[in-house]
Amino acid sequence: SETWPDGPEWQRGGANCWVTSTFDPDLNLLYFGTGNPCPDFDGDVRPGDNLYTDSGVAVDVDTGEIKAHFQYTPHDVWDYDSTMEHILFDLDGQKLAAHFDKNGFLYILDRTNMEAVRVVPFVDRIDWGEVDEKGNVTPKVFPDKEGDPVHFWPGPAGAKEWTHACYNPNTELLYAPVQDVGATATRRRREFVESIPYWGAGVAVDLEDMAGSISAFDPRTGEERWRWRNDIPMCASLLTTGGGLVFGGEPTGEFNALDAESGDLLWQFQCGSGHHSSPSTYEVDGRQYIAVPSGWGAWNEGFLPGMLGAGHGSALFAFALPE
Questions:
Q1: Burial of 221 (C-beta count, 10 Å sphere; 0-12/13-18/19+)
Q2: DSSP secondary-structure letter at 61?
Q3: CA distance 322 to 118
Q4: Which of 21, 213, 216, 299 could pair with 225 as two cysteines, CB 3.0-4.6 Å apart?
Q5: What's the DSSP call for residue 197?
Q6: Is omega for the bond preceding 251 within 30 degrees of 0, making it cis?
Q7: In degrees, to the nearest 5, what angle opens at C-alpha 291 toward C-alphas 289 and 295?
Q8: pLDDT tens track for 108-135
Q9: 79 is an active site residue
Q10: Could you give the dihedral angle defined by the CA atoms of residues 188, 191, 196 and 200, in that order, rounded to the nearest 10 degrees?
Q11: pLDDT tens digits for 252-283?
Q12: CB 220 within 8 A of CB 91
């Protein structure tokens, strides 16, 4: 609480965890991502770094003790939750964790101590601030005056929201669904009232000038190996398989299979409603299946408001190769 002001602000400060944690049985650690501080955009109410918001936190399973942490966006005034997954993998003798943050940067961390090994951008447009190779942040563009509209990239849904990236140990590549869309926030002072949204700004997400992709990254260098481009943000989780595929759905309903080495589109199926969920794979009697729920919805105005009127039908699809 020493990173919060004296007073009650830390008690209503946010940092909730709303994505499943990841467990390392060898280190006996659970890795949690935490949400943004509150109010989201009005930082004057809560000076300081505001730990443990926007952080990856390693917790001892037996005691609940915080063993290590890494804060991705100190004193967040852009609504850049860091709740999203930490992908655990071993590479070149190192125990690593990969995290694609809302703020537009890919972090490769040493998961034994949560120190940064590598930090690189994974989306084209980032102007909210600069982050160096060790994760130190220099803010540049943010809503700092009452009633003054400020535009920044990425918008509050982030360059990747809660939707999951993935790692393939065969290709040794990371794959991320990317959202390249900005927003305008106008700061408005609000007093805390229980059960009432505590944003501290009015927000309008861009209706035009946006893009998306499924992008592959080399965790050794941070280099983008390939990019499968889309005209609109990619808002659904990815799945990669031992057969060398990457599966991912589009907001317009297409469910795609890409070549994990090249990014070439190999197969596509129209599900009739947009994808904003997570595909999974399983086996029954020796036959492998891919299942994916479709159904457009869940805070569309935060990342793709132009598709608020799209069909919201919900269905679960399961696919398999011919017997």
A1: exposed
A2: T
A3: 42
A4: 216
A5: -
A6: no
A7: 165
A8: 999 999 999 999 999 999 999 999 999 9
A9: yes
A10: 30
A11: 999 999 999 999 999 999 999 999 999 999 99
A12: yes
